[in-house]
Amino acid sequence: MLKLENIHTSYGHIEAVRGTNLEIRKGEIVSLIGSNGAGKSTTLMTISGILRPVKGKVIFEGREIQGLSPHKIVSMGVSQVPEGRRIFPKLTVRENLEMGAYLKGKGQRAKGKGSGVKGQEARGKGEDTSRGDSRIALAEQLDHIFNLFPVLKERQKQLGGTLSGGEQQMLAIGRALMSGPELLLLDEPSLGLAPIIVIKIFKTIRELNAGGLTILLVEQNAKAALRLAHRGYVIESGRVTREGIGKELLDDPAIKRAYLGE
C-alpha cells in the first residue's frame, strides 16, 4: 500500500530523515519507534505532504505522492492525526469533525453535462442530488464516529478547547476518520493521557484495524506499540536501523535496553 524509498527530508540545512526505506502492507498496523528527535514525526509529515522530501519517493497505491499538497493526499486516502492533537479550539466538536469531511472533498466539483437551459437544469438537479448524497454521507460518518467515541456525541455542541486531553485526542482521531482514509497516520496518540484513556485509545486502534483500516503508528510507549503492531521499524538519527515482526522486536535485548527500560 505504502512505500518509502530512500527518503531524505530536511529542515533547512539539518537533515532529519536520511535515506529511510519503509513499507506498509494493506491491513497492517506498523509501528515506528525511536527516541525523541529520531525522525519519526518528520517521516509522518513527509508521507502526508506537510513536508516535502529533498530526495526519494513516497509511493501510495502505486502512485508517487511526494510533492502533492496535503489536501490532495487526504483526498487520495491518507489521513494524519498529528502529535499534540491540534484541534480547532474555538469550533464545536461537531464542527471539528465536519472539517475532516470537508478536507476529503476539497477541490472536487460535481460535473454536469449539456448546455443551455436544459443543461443548466440537469446540472442543477445533479447538484441537488450530490448535495443530498453528501448530507447523507456526512450523517453516516458522524454516526460512525459517535459510535466509536460516545462522549463526542454528548459534547458535540461544546467547544473543542474545553474538552479534556483524552477527549481532544478522540476528537483528533475522529476528525481524521471523517475523511474516510485507507491509511491512518497516528503520531503519539497516548502522549500526556491518563492510563485509562490510553487503554481506550489503543482498543479503538485495534478495532479500526480489525475493520480494515491500515495504520502507521508513532508512539512513545514502545512496548504497547510493538504489542499492537504486526510489524515494527526502529529509527535512529533519521535512519531505519531495525525492522521485524512486533513480537520479535519486543524480545530483542538491544531494543529492550534502549526503548523498553529493561
Outline the secondary-structure elements:
Layout: E1 2-11, E2 14-24, E3 29-33, H1 40-48, E4 55-60, E5 63-64, H2 70-76, E6 78-81, H3 93-105, H4 116-148, H5 150-154, H6 165-177, E7 183-187, H7 195-210, E8 214-218, H8 222-228, E9 231-236, E10 239-245, H9 246-250, H10 253-259
Parallel strand pairs: 3-8, 3-9, 6-7, 7-8
Antiparallel strand pairs: 1-2, 1-4, 4-5, 9-10
Account of the protein in words:
This protein has 10 helices and 10 strands. By secondary structure, it is of the alpha/beta class. It has one domain: P-loop containing nucleotide triphosphate hydrolases (Rossmann fold, 3-Layer(aba) Sandwich). Strand 7, helix 7 (195-210) and strand 8 (214-218) form a beta-alpha-beta unit. The protein is globular and about 50 Å long.
